Amino acid sequence: MSKWLVRLKGERFDLEDLPKLFCLSKAKVVEEGGSFYLESSEFNSLTSAKEVRERGRVLINLINGVTKFDRDNFLGISEDAIIRVEDDGKWHGYIFLESSAKIRTNITARLTSIATDGSKKVVTQLSTIESLFEVAQKYNVVADALSLYGDDKWSSYYKAYEIIEGDVGGKIIKNGWSVKSNISRFTQTAQTYRHAGKKYKPPSQPMTLSEARALIKAILSRWISSKT
């Protein structure tokens, strides 16, 4: 049976860990010939490389968010090409250019999965990843917030905050997930970055991006825990 894959690109240091971290039916990363590929049961019903690319990007954004949530030093991955593996083992690659043009090449190879080493560390990481993915698959708002967290930008952190705030009816502080001073400092600083050039006054002690990341991660953690 033929299947679709998404070839991934990113730092080798990050890519090498993904087969151990993602062994889920909806998000499985495998290595073949030194390259890394994303498999997903969600690709099975798709008929074109464009459809696979669009769905693959959604999953990659979620992978980035989940992994950055679990590992602060993860830099992120992106889509490099779409691959269709035929029944006879031949691979057809589709590369999308900025102009939306499409180049098609033929590659002959066979897919082999890399097994996890079974160490205690790997089991722990898989548990974290699986748990986050399970909640994200159940709640679209969680998937959206985690994907935004993976962007590592002020605008994305603020949007993630707005998603959580909207979901809990503005009760982040009441729920004890943060304190008013930190929230005010975050939102005021974020507004100066999101609306550069406009008259938004920064707080007396602007929050750094790393502080914003830590704050949103803490709130995300408590929010996700409340849904499990």
What is the average per-residue confidence, as pLDDT, rounded to a whole number? 81
Measured on Cα atoms, how large is the radius of gyration?
20 Å
Written as H for each helix and E for each strand, in order along the chain, the element string is EHHEEHEEEHHHHH
Largest sheet: 6 strands, antiparallel
Biggest sheet, strands in spatial order? 2-3-1-4-5-6
Count of beta strands: 6
Which stretches of 5+ consecutive residues score pLDDT under 50?
98-126
Describe the overall structure.
The chain contains 8 helices and 6 strands; from the N terminus they run E-H-H-E-E-H-E-E-E-H-H-H-H-H. A 6-stranded antiparallel sheet has the order 2-3-1-4-5-6. Residues 98-126 have low confidence and may be disordered. The chain is elongated and about 65 Å long. Helices cover 46% and strands 18% of the residues. The chain starts with a strand and ends with a helix. The protein folds into 2 domains: 3-108, no CATH class; 139-226, no CATH class. The protein has helices spanning 12-15, 18-21, 49-70, 120-138, 140-149, 154-167, 180-194, 209-226; strands at 3-10, 28-32, 35-39, 77-85, 90-96, 102-108. It has 228 residues and is of the alpha+beta class.
Indicate the topology:
Blueprint: E1 3-10, H1 12-15, H2 18-21, E2 28-32, E3 35-39, H3 49-70, E4 77-85, E5 90-96, E6 102-108, H4 120-138, H5 140-149, H6 154-167, H7 180-194, H8 209-226
Antiparallel strand pairs: 1-3, 1-4, 2-3, 4-5, 5-6
Keywords for this entry:
single chain; 228 residues; 8 helices; 46% helix
What's this model, at a glance?
The chain is an alpha+beta fold and 228 residues long.
